[in-house]
User: Fold this.
Amino acid sequence: MKKWMIIGIALVLLTGCDKFEFSLKPKGDQKQAPAVEEPPARPSLKNKTDPAWNSYGIGLPLVMICKESTDESEVAGDPFVNLKPATGNRAFMSTNRYEVEATNLLTVRPLDESTYTGESLPDPNQLAAGEPTALFKAPLTITAGPIACTNAIILADAEPAILILDPERLELIKRFPVDGLILAFTAFNPDTAELSVLFGDQSTATYRFVNEEPPVIDPVAQLIGPSDGALQNMADRTKKLLSSTETIQFDRTRIFPISSEIALDKPTLFRLAVDADGMYRLYLDGIGDTPFIMILFNETGESIFSNVEYAAEKVMEQNLEKGNVYYLVVSLFPGNQANDAIQNRIPQLMVKRK
Assistant:
């Protein structure tokens, strides 16, 4: 029994010595695995664009388009010499090929870039393309395009309209109707997002893509308000008579007698018409002794008379004719302490036949 215990203790001691000897060896003596070198990254066309490919590295503004200019003169020479037919038109962006493959069909196919060396941009027409990853079937014939931007593909169709598609799924984002059949896109300026087009009547035009909201049109103001030129004349005349250094702006034109109250903090513009020819008295009820100006204009914005031409009259007398449209501006003098006397009263315009 003692013999086996001695043998066991000896084995334990021998094993511990081996571990101790190994731990004393310097780390430099330990063998390290050789580093694995990663292969260099292959050159890729990913995210590349080029005007020669009909592609541009910009995010196209998508809210609306504005027609910047129109040239109705005929294009010099044969306008169709340098135009490709709609079928076969292509744009290349990144590793995608966008192609009008039928009169109403646009597809996007992945490019095979295995032969691309990265030394210079290749002719993408020489690269093979795979199966379509998305397609767009237009309800009408595609007449121009495509042009590719990072967030949009631009086409034109026979509605006529300019179409904006999503570059990945080719889903329709926007349709902008235009006033002529577009036969070709002749130029695109990425700095101003301006697209030049050729129409079927051989005239040309330029459209600008913008992110601004279209102005809200007030149909009431269009029907009853003065023209832009007339309104500017009225504002200029009012500014002069008020001796104001600030730009004069009117709110919505008020139709008298439906509305007769004047604003106390800014000039008020009334549209005025009478039922019969004759001399009329124009004045303010409830104004007291507070000074004010009252200017009568014709429809074109020409000043007819004002109560401060010669003296600050409280009542204007003027011959008005039936069938004519008149505009009347009424305003207090800004900053005049006498305005405080009005307090909670709101003066009202009065027009009565003499």
Q: What stands out?
A: The two ends are 146 Å apart (CA to CA). Confidence is low (pLDDT under 50) at residues 19-24, 73-87. The first strand starts at residue 55 and ends at 56.
